[in-house]
Amino acid sequence: MTATEARTVVVVGGVAGGMSAAARLRRLDEHAQIVVFERGPEVSYANCGLPYYVGGVIAERESLLLQTPASLRSRFGLDVRVRHDVVRIDTAQKLVEVEELDSGRRFTQSYDSLILATGARPRRDEPVSDIPVRSLRTVDDADAIDAALVRPGLPVVVVGGGYTGLEAVENLVARGASVTLVQRGSQLLSPLDAEMAAPIAAEVRAHGVDVRLGVEVVRADSGYVTLSDGTSIAAELMIDASGVVPETTLAERAGIRIGETGGIDVDAQCRTSAPDVFAVGDGVEKAELVGGGTALVTMAGLANRHGRMVADLLAGRSETARPALGTGIVRVFGVAAGKTGWSERQLRAAGREFYAVHVHPGSHAGYYPGAETLSMKLLADPRSDAILGVQVVGRDGVDKRIDVIATAMHAGMPAAELAQLELAYAPQFGSAKDAVNILGYVAENTRTGTTPTIQWHELDAAQRAGAALIDVRTPTEFAAGAIPGAVNVPLDELRDRLDELPDGEIVVHCQVGLRGHIATRILRQHGVDARNLDGGYRTWRDAALLRG
Amino acid sequence: MTATEARTVVVVGGVAGGMSAAARLRRLDEHAQIVVFERGPEVSYANCGLPYYVGGVIAERESLLLQTPASLRSRFGLDVRVRHDVVRIDTAQKLVEVEELDSGRRFTQSYDSLILATGARPRRDEPVSDIPVRSLRTVDDADAIDAALVRPGLPVVVVGGGYTGLEAVENLVARGASVTLVQRGSQLLSPLDAEMAAPIAAEVRAHGVDVRLGVEVVRADSGYVTLSDGTSIAAELMIDASGVVPETTLAERAGIRIGETGGIDVDAQCRTSAPDVFAVGDGVEKAELVGGGTALVTMAGLANRHGRMVADLLAGRSETARPALGTGIVRVFGVAAGKTGWSERQLRAAGREFYAVHVHPGSHAGYYPGAETLSMKLLADPRSDAILGVQVVGRDGVDKRIDVIATAMHAGMPAAELAQLELAYAPQFGSAKDAVNILGYVAENTRTGTTPTIQWHELDAAQRAGAALIDVRTPTEFAAGAIPGAVNVPLDELRDRLDELPDGEIVVHCQVGLRGHIATRILRQHGVDARNLDGGYRTWRDAALLRG
């Protein structure tokens, strides 16, 4: 298991993937020489915590700094050099050329194995400007933003409404900044589908943030940012959260193969095209499960896992990376949104067959206080029933449902099998039929045609084609807000009022889909060509937010 | 899918399994005659909510009553008769004899299919007494307990420290009762192993409850309960939470086969030994996954699922019950405890080979406020690495980890694969290496012998046999409390102090196991016969609570 002669392993990049590789290798090989070069001033810091340090949620700057070169030396015998920039790799000679940034001195370091963990860099497409622009990638970024925020009401423009942008927004608001969120796309949180992400924009707006969708920054100067729609916004600080691109400069210069996605091309054991050169983390393109191809999945968990795997390989163990699911989650103000696998948008773009299911179960038993309504969307293969993706949005219990379904996907479990999972039930935690079970039941009813459904975006066309829309909720619910054109026939009266229904196709709906399912079953058994509006009024209303 | 001629389906028992069967059958078959007989005054009530109604957490009695006979008639066209006791089944004539409890009138009802959902009844082994005894099975129980609690400081003895007993205790305390918890076994929460359950007893005691372990009630009269150790306790109310037994009287009388566990014997489609008679829920013994045999698993989720499955069968669909895991969870005061699969005690009793792993990761990233330390125990097969059981105890995130691992077990995932799960990470929700991933990593290190471990209960014997115990925590941690006989050599000094170590076997330990793992790796690579104390000081200290 341990090497009999000391070899030299050089790691470029000292945060997630690089540090995981170095520490694990030491645990397996007490004798290797392990040198870690990090361009920045810190290693192993909690970059996912940076927004919360800005917001004051994380009070101590020290708690971001998980390790120091000194602690890594004493515990792991690692030779960690911060502010050391690896400027060149000679894959033939097996050495790297390193610049000590503070002195400008250059030197070479030979290696037996090299691990590239160079990460990603901000895409940075803002125009050149006299307004300071910061990302949220380093402790230095966080310090600079923190310093600027001492001025109350500072006007800040956040560019990019993804995971990091949303976390930045929440924390800037917490610090009293006046925040505008500018998003190029027509929705926030593009990993989710539009109707799932719509409540996020509503939540962000409800906290006083000016959300601008479908626009870009075209000019920024003298305290104002001008958007592509011609409007301008006061801004004394811009936060660039528009995304990252793999940092591959070093690898490219060394002739190491780059993949189609722009990340370093590696095999299932994180080997690059150069001998004895491995690469892990955000700089690398990853095999992914749903499409079977490669993708840029920039998640700390994968970086850590692959770093550890490379250490195992170097110690003579055989392990391969599992294809990535792209599991992610973000909380912004009171709402959490998570996803794993592909969105409907991705499936459509790839021409994949799928069926979709929306449900809105409670986060725990309705009779116990504090239950919140979840919005869940499942995408699955209509032939194999393989789960292709899941999105969950809500105020409680989102992470749990994402994790359970990510585990099911990892195991190759079909969607209907989610109904069979035996999950922990006490009324504070779930329901005798947990939200995940309900998703499985509805998936099965949908896929088998037990209850044919129609999607929110298909409703207009169906109505134009003559389908009648029957709202089976109570008159009180109907009066509080209804879909245009709907006629109210409460479920509990439906059997007695069958003769009132018009001929031809009928779409039924309720609040979340359950009563609509029961109504559809009643109608179809009475010979009516009925379909249920998937996700009910609630999904339709969420989607309607897109237009408002 | 629907029957072409109306058949009569009779359901005995109108709570979880029975009602699920009836409602699902109606959704699949609009024309069947469905008759539900329920002995009690209510159907479809939230029995898992009863303790919280007693405690005032659930304020409205109505919220316990999920459905009424009237609502079930209007929505599902069900013929639901409460206070109707089925007293006899004639499986040859295919009819049941029913007593209308209020009038004493008897009548017969024929069936094409019969579904028994008779549930369980309290084991009730308290001595006959003038002190009122109540279970927490029915709304009537809850009403009676609620009424008694109007007297502040009422002395109450709860018999049984399982899920229901603990929930009762919490809610009685919330109502100001003076509570004694009497448990026959030597620990609370017997589905968990002793060292995992020990913190539960500490939590309950910290809330002023008098916990008496290893004793039984032998006499109860005139306001006092006498225990088997001779002590007596004031009691004006006893809560029987000592467990339940399947209610099989009706089935037995009809000659329906009862299994070895005492539950009705059914096949994988819930068919009993009598033709066209099905049985579901707490009255039935269930196939279970880990042992491959049968067991009494009295969980609402399984009852619902199996009821629904029987309806599917009656509607011509083919489905089989998955073997049960026995997933359960309870929260008592601030601590939650969950489990799925078997405990170490069960594995030992069955003579099964296993290895055990204890870890104590954070419920989310340590740098983000509010992270709580989880205690997790995994049991797995040393040959196949199949997960045999998991227990999790802590103040946050317990349910999520149980659910993820229950899903992994359902899928047949090996323990080491838990490390590979791509779970949702943002700092409020988890860690880049989630608690579940860590459990997988430690399982792999343990099973492969990368770091050999010793269990808490093996430590005394190892020390007596001459093993030295090295505590690799900091001097501050060591001073705050150490294991007798331990010598402190902090991890970060270990490489420099190897020559101080005694010859022979060495057991190392830290607080939770991670630094002990690193120390073990260092020592073994330097030729020392070292093992790591699994779960570290924390598991040892939890186990030590058992003696105190």
Describe the structure.
The structure is a homodimer of 548-residue chains. Chain A is an alpha/beta fold. The first copy, chain A, folds into four domains: 8-45 and 64-119 and 245-314, 3-Layer(bba) Sandwich (FAD/NAD(P)-binding domain), CATH 3.50.50.60; 133-242, FAD/NAD(P)-binding domain, CATH 3.50.50; 334-447, FAD/NAD(P)-binding domain (3-Layer(bba) Sandwich); 453-544, Rhodanese-like domain (Oxidized Rhodanese, domain 1). In chain A, strands 3-2-1-7-18 form a five-stranded parallel β-sheet. The longest helix of chain A has 15 residues, at 300-314. Chain A is globular. The first copy, chain A, starts with 7 loop residues before the first strand and ends with a helix. At the A-B interface, helix 1, helix 3, helix 8, strand 21 and strand 22 of A face helix 1, helix 3, helix 8, strand 21 and strand 22 of B.
Protein traits:
homodimer, 548 residues, alpha/beta, FAD/NAD(P)-binding domain, 4 domains, five-stranded parallel sheet, 16 helices, 30 strands, 27% helix, globular, oxidoreductase (chains A, B), flavoprotein (chains A, B), Pyr_nucl-diS_OxRdtase_dimer (chains A, B)
